[in-house]
Amino acid sequence: MIRLAALLSALLVLAAPVGAQETNTVGLSDAALNRIPAKKLFGAEKTPANMRSRAIGTYARGCLAGGVSLPINGPDWQVMRLSRNRNWGHPDLIALLERLASDAKKFDGWPGLLVGDIAQPRGGPMLDGHASHQIGLDADIWLTPMPDHTLSREEREQMKAKVVVKDRKTMDYSVWTEAHARLIKRAASYPQVERIFVHPPIKAELCKWATGDRSWLAKVRPLYGHNYHFHIRIKCPSGSPGCKPQWAPHPDDGTGCGKELAYWMSEKPWAPPKKAEPNKKPPKPPPPLTLSGLPADCRDVVTAE
Length: 305
Known about the structure:
The protein is an alpha+beta fold and 305 residues long. The chain has helices at 2-15, 30-33, 38-43, 91-107, 153-158, 178-189, 200-209, 259-264, 297-303; strands at residues 54-58, 61-65, 68-69, 73-74, 77-79, 88-89, 113-115, 138-142, 193-198, 220-222, 229-234. It has a single domain (54-269), classed as Muramoyl-pentapeptide Carboxypeptidase, domain 2 (2-Layer Sandwich). 27% of the residues lie in helices and 14% in strands.
């Protein structure tokens, strides 16, 4: 309770208006907890909740109990951006990432993974950067091969990932190789993987490249912002009854290389938003998400010792 009181005291100071009195956190009520944006509560936690491992809620609104960390160095992976402390996930995801790193090096000619964000120690909303990655079942893998040396902490903060496209329709073949395609196919081949997000021209390139059984392509979904990394999402694991699954991708053509891809390669998804009417007040932004907007079990997760 001492640790929790100190944490919440600091957070309440951050959340309170200038000049407001500090709130006593002893016996803090749910009403007081709900004054603090959930992203500040979860973003302040540096260690996982000492609980049974569970993914709780949805990928974009939930939390993680009993999270485990991906070691920052492995035989065929390295974790990037260590200052973010986002190399935590459900044990099933961590095991899959270690397997992918090993399989891709052994079978696909990929020298090793550079792993970006997974989740915070207790999951939940992040202070910046992601709407998803909240329940320990999402991970970002850079499309940059791992260097042949152990990166320093400074290198992991400063090194830039290589963008593999020239624009939203065109690949950069001075960067992209067949090994990239084999890596993504390898990730999609695991049955527990539900989705992989890539920039639209990457999906188009994979559709041209793939031969034989092309069913794995259904999992590879085009989406903005994935021009230097791909995003792995696994299914809700057993033992996590509070995890809410997504619908399984079933494109009409079995691969997503037809009308789904055509939409993303068109102008429609990239059209700028309509301009507001003159003299019309813009709508008020929604209030920040608090614990009341997350599954009930997330209160126990974020307040656990």
